[in-house]
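Sample 3 of the quickstart, ligand flavin-adenine dinucleotide:
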Amino acid sequence: MNTAKKRNFSVEFFPPRSEAGKTKLNEVHRKLALLKPDFFSVTYGAGGTTKQGTKEIVLQYSNEGSTLVPHLSFGGTEDREILTLLAEYKDAGINRLVALRGDNPSGMGAAIQHRYANELVEFIRKETGETFHIEVACYPDIHPESKSYTSDVSHFKNKVSAGANSAITQYFYNPDSYFRFVDYCAGQGITIPIVPGIMPITNYANLARFSGSCGAEIPQWLDKRLTGFGDDTEGLKSFGIDVVTRLCEQLLEGGAPGLHFYSMNLASSVNQIWKNLSIKNGG
Ligand code: FAD
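Result:
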C-alpha cells in the first residue's frame, strides 16, 4: 500500500426521521465540521423512507460549506428518477457518491427486488461519465448473503470493473480481518483504495443487534468485556473509545488509506477518537 498518498477521513450520517432528530444532527454536524473531514456521507433508505431526507441533508450541509457525499441505490426507483437525482447533485457541485445495492428496512421482507451495486455503478458511469468519484461497499468479514469469501470478493471486483474508484468497508474490530482482505483483493487485481469503516462503540445492545444482521463480527473477548459494563454506559463508551482508537492506530500504521466513521448521528466518540489520533485534514 502506498502511504505517501493523501489519506481520506470521512464521517457518515443517516437522515433523521423527525424534526428533533434533525435539530440534533445539525448540532452534531456543526461540531464534527470543526474536525474538517474530507467529506460527510449521508445514507440512503433504499426501501424509500429516507430518500428525500438524504437529498435535503446533502444539499443543506453542502450549502453550509461542507463536502457532502450522498449514498444511492436503485432500491425499486425508476431509472429516470435516479437520473434526475444525479443531475440535481451535479448542479449542486456534488462530485462523489457511494453506490450500493441497499437492503429492505426491517419488517418489509422482500418488498423490493434490489439490483446489485455493480449495475448501479455501470448505470452512473454510462449516464454521467466521469462526473462522479464512485465509492462502493466491501466486507472484510464477508457480506452475510455471500456464498463464499471468494465469490464475495469476485462480486466486489465486478464493481471495480464497472468503474468504482474506491471502497469503504463494513465495520470490523479485528485489524487482521482488514489486512487479510486487502491482501486477498490485491491478489485478485483489486487495487483501488479500501478505506476501513469504523464503528465507535456507544451502545452494546444496538451494536450486537446490528452486527448480527450485517455480518460484522464482534470478537469474543470484546463482546465479553462490553457485556460486563451492564448499565454503565459512560464506562462502556470510554472503554469503546480506547478500543477503537487502538484499532484505528493499527490500521493507519499498517497503511490504511484513511478512515470512514459511522457516527450514528452522534458526535462525542468520533470527536474523541479523531483527537486521540491527531488526524489532520489533508491526511
Ligand atoms: P452488492 O455489492 O450488490 O452485494 C450484495 C450481495 O450480493 C453480496 O453478498 C454479494 O456477494 C452478492 N452479489 C453481488 N453481485 C452478485 C451477482 N451478480 N450474483 C449473485 N450475488 C451477487 N444500505 C442502505 O440501505 N443504505 C445505505 O446508505 C447504505 N450505506 C452503506 C455504506 C457502506 C460503506 C456499507 C459497507 C454498507 C452500506 N449499506 C447501506 C448496507 C448495504 O446496502 C448492504 O450491506 C447490502 O446488503 C449490500 O450492498 P452492496 O452495495 O454491498 O451490494
